[in-house]
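Input/output pair, single chain:
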Amino acid sequence: MDVEFWRGKWQRNEIGFHEPVPHRFLTAFWPRLGIARGGAVLVPLCGKSLDLLWLRDAGYRVIGIELSELAVEAFFTEHGLPVQREAGTHFCRYRHGEIEILCGDFFQVRPEDVGAVAGLYDRAAMIALPAQLRRRYTAHLCALAPRATGLLVTLDYRPSQETAPPFSVDPDEVEALLGADFSLEMLARDDVLADNAKLAARGLNALHETAFALRPR
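Output:
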């Protein structure tokens, strides 16, 4: 993971990936997963996503992981949430009520740092990573949440030359990366090219956003 690349994105406020409302796939499909309220939900590479608030309000304890201190500080400040900070060796833990965010390198977070995880939610983490890191990412995600049920949202597009995030991750790659650990169910696959002018400007002729339910094998 290019640490300085992502820190620079936040410093320059180049955060087109941030959405001003909870993601439509989260609100539509999370209730179908059957994850008991009160459990912990892991949200890797969470930024300052409003999805964290939605999950908390739905009755879950939320554990985000985010590299950028600017993103973490902005999340709590923008929502008027007083925060407790606890410095650690590899990350700083920010906490307010049922939401905590570990600020640091995702790959440095250990299973004991997050504890028992009932659910996981990946909206823009896997597609933020180039191909050479995605297998390492999914292996570490499975180590952090080995028995979790989750929701994964990906983008895939044509032509699919990887130049910059968001990267194209098609359903076949999702199966190759996660199929050994999870039973995968495709919940939706939407054509979203018309709604993504910046990606269309890359010369794409197809862009799909796909939601997968992940259930442990």
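The beta strands are 40-44, 61-66, 84-87, 91-96, 99-104, 119-122, 149-158, 182-191, 206-216. The domain at 3-153 is CATH 3.40.50.150 (Rossmann fold).
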